[in-house]
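B., you asked whether I could sanity-check this one before it goes into the benchmark set. Here's the sequence:
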Amino acid sequence: MKTTPSFFLRFRALAGAAVFTALACNGMAGESSKKENAGASAKKVITLEEAYNLTLASDQSVRTAYLEIRKANLLPWSALTRLTPRLSGGFSYNYSESRSGNFIANGTLLSSANSRNADLSLQQTLVDFTFFPAYRLAKLSGASARLQYQLSLRTVLFGVAKAYYEVLKQQQVVELDANTVSLAENQVKLSQNQFDAGAVSKVDVLRAQSTLETARQTLIADQNILELNRDTLANTLNLQGAARTFDVTQPKDATEAERSFEHALTQAYLNREDYKISSIAIQQNVEQKNAVIAQYAPSVSAQVSNNWAAQSNSPHNDAWGATVSVNVPFFTGGQREIDLRTATHNISEAKIALETTAKTVETDVKTTWLQVQTLRETIKSLKTQVAANQQNYDDLVNQYKAGTATSLDTQTGLIQLFVSRTNLITQTFQYQVALRDLERSIAAFQNERVKGVRLPVSVFEPLPTQP
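And here's what the prediction gave me:
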């Protein structure tokens, strides 16, 4: 007993069957394809490399990560302020009046006095053991920010590649749908002619008309999906106005490098930015603990001050002094002990987080590596399947012409051929994305572009001009 194919595959198969009959009648499919290509050529074509450059120049997450580096570059300077001198000054002025009366002489005596006081003080920290862990922590924060910036670049670039291939795939689907509509129209004309000649029943005409309407609906739906995919890519590239109307072109295929899973995992542990950031987080917590320990040590500071004082009817007074002080914090209410225990727990949590990140990296690499292996072998199988289905369909067509096969046999063979070809195209696109995904999982995707982006190295460096 033969199974009935799904309606969607059936209408596609019926439309495809018209290739061998309608093309003999006229060349409308070729003319439609030329019109489609002519319309597409009027749009701007954005290559994948251009898409990468547009994203790096305008993506919000990349710009935010860039500013985080600028902020991290300030941290070493903040640590240095613990040892930099501090200069302070003050000035005061006082004026007073007093009245005294002589009731016997019936007189009043008015007296006034004023004073001025100015001081200048210079303080210098000579020894502060909290400086060293604070400075090392600042350097680690800067390294973490730079790694996060590179991770943002790699993630954004891979997102662009995925969105780009979605548009590319859907663009070809729409072209296929347009050809299917044209073939369905020819099939309606052919069925009508055969019906007028009495060769077929009215059922064939109605079936052809239903196939045509379904093909039109599919074309409209796929056009809308293409528009949404283009809009997603345009938003990723931050395109505005007329620039949002564009086409994409087939990029150069990625090639698969011969690597075992163990080798890929080793490369991931060596290169992944998120794994390095988790490792640095442990060192950061260690330095925070060292900063708490350093609070137990004494601090030494020196101060030089000068004071100028002047009063009315008195000579000016000029005095200066120098002080060296040692501060030993014997007891701070237990807060240091609490901070020390908290820092110790933070180190343990950071180590656990590194273990979790390692598992995440392993799962990511394993998933992408297996996906590449699966798609590679699937494509090999599908190529063989397409060749077999092509030969089977050709044989069925010849048998149908000879009267030894039915139209249902021919349609079933065409469906099998269509499904295998569709699967081959889909898996081929997915294979290209999977290759790039594997490179991303081992931090090798667009490595030259990521490493080649200039990082801010100075706090005095001006911000880049944003588009």
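One thing to flag: The CA atoms of residues 127 and 322 lie 17 Å apart. Otherwise nothing jumped out at me.
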